[in-house]
Specification:
The complex is a heterodimer. Chain A is of the alpha/beta class. Chain A has 20 helices and 13 strands. In chain A, 52% of the residues lie in helices and 13% in strands. The chains are: A alpha/beta, B alpha/beta. At the A-B interface, helix 7 and helix 9 of A face strand 5 of B.
Chain lengths: 542, 309
């Protein structure tokens, strides 16, 4: 926990990875940046503010300039991660032709990016503007080749030019000689293959004829057949051997050119690596800004540690959940809350959205601390050292679900010196109610006196009063009676619950009993009415 | 005889082989050699594990190949792709001289489609795909406008050599179905009321009494023959494309004898069968005998003798 902003369980619970999945980077470099993404911790507010301002201005810019967006996207998606090639060049290795080609393409992309970021006067992104390496680009663009392509053209070396020209001449001569031989075969009325090869069955008169003819030689044979070919003239064989020699020399020269170019790359390697980092960042910035435009993100305001109010969220949305609801034709009801340093309690009917509120707070703090715009109307918070979500987990490593819950809390509470966010969802719900209450009260009281920020959900009556904690309540089904629910539930489908449930949050000013809406929820979930009525009679006796 | 006129202006051709030593590479080289002056060529290898083939590529041809192939030095590199192969990403280049090179191409159909798009954007006029005869590689036929089958003589049972070739040709030339379900991703049976989806687990002979045709999504393999036989009466099976039919020669012949027929919802035409009478194991057939017998047997499919044409 000490070095982690989020542990695995919290990450899963608040759906951090699902949120990140919406940030679609375009290049491997962007992906590299995304996979290494780190939050800004308490104490790094200056850098966090700078990043948030940049995100906000960039999001605003891209929402107004669709053409620029399309140019930027098509350019950045071509940017490859070539840091391995830069490393190889720095270590004195000879880069392959493909690597040189890729570097040339990257240089072109860097140049285009430079133009794109310059044209709009992005002072905010000035330090991320790639510098490129015009000298290296020129070195990789010798001859008449196009800026987009790469070939070891003759202009790289007079020797290469001479060798290739000689090879070309010899190949022409050989071609002519081959054509002459094929004509000769035709004249002899011999049926042959494309390369002048003749296949004959062994032991036939044809086989004896070719065997005896000194113009032919046995090229290869199988158990049943022999393949004869025209014997080439000594000068043809000489040309052939010279071409092989030229090709060896040519390869040596090509390698020497690649070596020189690799040395040149090594001189620019550090600068290009820095440019690659910039491209990685710009890709991520672009991707996160695009999503922020989609969810109409707001610029979160970090507040100082001295402030009593540590979090103010107005109309906050849990973006991944809101997207899933949208697919079903439903709408996420935005949530607003204000939390002070210490602990607060959240109560409400089952399925009234308590856990969703915890998730929304956790995810949105996480989004803000990663320098992104938050899906809310307004968001002010005190940057934290970690976010921790405690919930009844799955049995694991010999520990029961209750055991896992306590083990997680123990880990989080062990870092007293850090300022974290504790989101505690129905702690100890699986143990006996008396002791469960006591555990909740103890931890709530303990966290109330810490520098951390905590929000507990619970169904235990009197917990807020016992701990003097701020009490929030989900409106739930409080405004509708059980009898009304019975009437409405008749013949209604499963979609009645979200229609009746009021997901708004209210601050409980005068302590009152927590809502007892479980029977209404059970009825809405389809439990038979006579069972509900039986439950009512038991409830009256308690 | 020339191959190019038989293509009738088709722009994407897949060359598949019956197996090792089928003469597939010779066929590809033959087309490249013949096409070099006539059309701007594009060539790639496609198959499970990224086929590596030694090709003779004429000057000016486009090649899509793995970035680590040695031949890249002889190319003007034109474009990069995010298509993968076991030998690295695929790059596209143009040969600046005639060259002989081992090339490895993409391994997925999705990547092959991307390469096709890049080739034609770069001015390719005839794309030749060197594929192997396995289920995955044959899918290259999906984007092709014609298939060329290269038939060799390297079969485990030489006595049934001609039957093997005939079966493969028959499977690649099954008739086109006149009707098939609107959605091709579920098993469907053609009943009075139209095409009705069914699940293999729920089928009984009585529920299929009036069914004459079924649609089979995905590959139809040897083991699926048992399903057909469990129904006790012959049916006509429609597959999406002929290359979804993947039966051994013996099962194919048995099913035919038992009265089963096969059709395809759509079919890439088999343009030609090329013959290679030389086996890599040292065995060979008389080229003339092989050619004349195969021509007779495979009629009306055109046959091309690689040694003498």
């Amino acid at each position: 926990m000490s070095d982690l902003f989020l542990d695995r369980e919290t990450r899963e619970k608040i759906e951090w990875d699902q949120f990140l999945a919406y940030i679609e980077v375009h290049s491997p470099l962007g992906l590299y940046y995304k996979n290494r993404l780190k939050p800004f911790f308490a104490g790094q507010e200056k850098h966090l503010r700078e990043e948030l301002r940049r995100s906000c201005k960039f999001a605003d810019f891209i929402s107004k300039n669709p053409r620029w967006v399309s140019d930027f996207a098509s350019n950045i998606q071509e940017a490859k991660d070539l840091r391995l090639s830069f490393k190889r060049a720095r270590e004195g290795m000879v880069l392959s032709v493909t690597e040189l080609f890729e570097i040339k393409r990257l240089l072109l992309i860097l140049d285009n990016m430079k133009g794109l970021l310059k044209s709009k006067g992005f002072s905010l992104l000035a330090k991320f503007r790639p510098k490129g390496a015009p000298g290296l680009f020129r070195a990789l663009s010798k001859g008449n080749q196009s800026p987009q392509t790469f070939y070891l053209v003759d202009d790289y070396s007079p020797l290469l030019k001479r060798l290739r020209s000689e090879k070309f001449e010899l190949k022409l001569l050989m071609e002519k000689e081959k054509e002459r031989l094929l004509e000769e075969l035709k004249g002899l009325g011999i049926k042959h293959g494309r390369d002048g090869e003749v296949v004959v069955s062994k032991g036939t008169p044809d086989a004896s004829r070719f065997s005896a003819d000194s113009r032919f030689y046995l090229k290869r044979e199988t158990l049943q057949t022999q393949v004869y070919a025209f014997r080439h003239s000594p000068r043809f064989l000489k040309w052939e051997s010279r071409i092989k020699e030229i090709e060896r020399e040519e390869e040596k020269e090509e390698r020497a050119i690649c070596q020189k170019l690799s040395q040149k790359v090594s001189k620019f390697a550090d600068a290009l690596e820095r440019d690659s980092e910039k491209v990685a960042y710009l890709d991520f910035l672009f991707a996160k800004s695009k999503v922020a435009v989609e969810y109409n993100g707001t610029l979160p305001q970090p507040v100082s540690t001295n402030r009593k109010t540590a979090l103010t969220m107005v109309d906050g949305v849990h973006f991944p959940l809101s997207q899933r609801l949208k697919e079903k034709g439903l709408k996420f009801q935005p949530l607003s809350i204000q939390l002070k340093q210490g602990a607060a309690l959240l109560t409400g009917a089952n399925m009234s959205g308590k856990t969703v509120l915890l998730k929304t707070i956790g995810l949105n703090i996480c989004i803000a601390q990663h320098g992104m715009l938050v899906p809310a109307k307004s968001f002010r918070w005190r940057p934290l050292d970690f976010v921790f979500f405690s919930t009844r987990g799955k049995e694991q490593d010999g520990l029961s679900a209750f055991g896992m819950e306590i083990a997680g809390l123990k880990r989080a509470l062990s870092v007293k010196e850090k300022k974290g966010l504790f989101l505690v969802d129905e702690l100890a719900r699986g143990t006996n109610p008396k002791e469960g209450f006591a555990i909740n009260a103890a931890i709530l009281t303990y966290l109330s006196n810490s520098d951390s920020l905590s929000l507990f959900t619970s169904h235990f009556d009197g917990l807020a009063k016992a701990c003097r904690a701020t009490h929030w309540q989900m409106a739930g089904l409080g405004n509708i009676s059980l009898d009304q629910v019975k009437l409405l539930a008749k013949g209604a489908g499963e979609d009645l619950m979200p229609k009746l449930m009021d997901y708004r949050l209210e601050k409980v000013k005068r302590e009152k009993a927590i809502p007892h809406d479980a029977l209404k929820v059970a009825l809405l979930l389809g439990l038979e009415e006579h069972v509900i009525e039986l439950a009512e009679t038991f409830l009256k006796k308690v | 005889m020339k191959v190019l006129p038989l293509l009738n202006g088709r722009q994407v051709i897949s060359v598949v082989g019956t197996g090792k030593g089928s003469g597939k590479t010779t066929t590809v080289n033959f087309i490249l050699s013949e096409g070099k002056k006539a059309r701007r060529l594009g060539v790639t290898a496609f198959g499970l594990g990224g086929v590596q083939t030694l090709l003779q590529i004429p000057e000016g041809s486009l090649i899509a190949l793995a970035r680590n192939c040695e031949v890249t030095k002889k190319l003007e590199l034109l474009d990069e792709t995010d298509a993968n192969s076991p030998w690295g990403n695929i790059v596209i280049g143009r040969t600046v001289e005639d060259c002989e090179a081992v090339i490895a191409g993409p391994v997925s159909l999705k990547d092959l489609i991307k390469i096709k798009e890049k080739f034609f954007a770069l001015g390719c006029e005839l794309m030749v795909v060197d594929s192997s005869l396995n289920r995955k590689s044959l899918s290259s036929a999906f984007l092709s406008q014609g298939v060329i089958l290269s038939a060799g003589i390297d079969f485990p049972d030489r006595d049934s050599l001609f039957e093997e070739i005939l079966s493969q040709v028959e499977m690649l030339t099954i008739l086109e179905a006149t009707s098939f379900p609107p959605s091709l991703n579920r098993h469907c049976a053609k009943k009075k009321e139209g095409w009705v989806p069914f699940s293999l687990e729920e089928v009984t002979p009585s529920s299929f009494e009036e069914v004459e045709e079924i649609f089979w999504p995905g590959a139809f393999l040897n083991e699926h023959a048992n399903f057909l036989r469990s129904l006790d009466f012959p049916l006509s099976v429609i597959v999406e494309e002929p290359w979804h039919l993947f039966l051994t020669q013996s099962i194919w012949c048995e099913l035919k004898k038992e009265g089963y027929t096969f059709k395809a919802a759509s079919r890439t035409p088999l343009l030609l069968v090329t013959l290679n009478p030389l086996s890599s194991t040292g065995f060979s057939l008389d080229p003339r005998d092989f050619s004349s017998r195969a021509s007779e047997m495979l009629k009306p499919v055109k046959v091309f003798d690689l040694l003498y044409e």
